[in-house]
Sequence to fold (209 residues):
Amino acid sequence: MPNLEKLSLDVRVFVNETFIDGNNLKKNILNRMSQLKQFTFNISSSMFMNNEMNLLSNEDIQQTFNDFQYSKIICCVDHFQEYKQVLCHVYSYPFLMQHYEDVTNNFPGGLYPYVRLVSLYDERPFEHDFFIRISQSFPFMEKLSINNLHAQKQKESYKLINDKSNLSIIKYDHLIELQIDRAHDDYIEEFLCNTKTYLQNNIFFDVHY
Fold:
């Protein structure tokens, strides 16, 4: 292991005290692998909320990667009040994995051409503009799952825009499977309404009420 030159990590873990951040990776991996030349990773660590963790932001985690030399690092920290959990997602970019899980409204954007499987989760509504961003960032997405119990707040404004024929219709060129699980009915409408969404293929549509 000390002579390893390439390393790729895909980790999803629940932690008790500290997130897996730049400091953790440097201490437990990089400082022990002096020959490492290529390091790509996709790491999600979550924990129950406490007073200290409630204060952490994207910028706090990003600072732990300031002297990281391998690639651009993206950090997303989400606080879920209903479940009393905090999720820290850090990954190297360009993103080489085929899956991207727990995308929230905090999603930073970018282009992810290798991703085929996407899951969405949040305690804030996903508006139509959010799905525009998702379709643009994951152009080759084949499977999508949605978990969000909160109704869209901008439906009336969409209706007014639609009356003027200016609503952006989202086209999914490669989507073949859609799962709407523990989600508000607004998201069913989001994908079945032809003034909002155009599905290029016949898809497997799984809805849980």
Remarks:
- The chain has a mean pLDDT of 91.
- The first strand starts at residue 6 and ends at 14.
- The helical segments are 22-28, 58-63, 128-137, 155-163, 185-192.
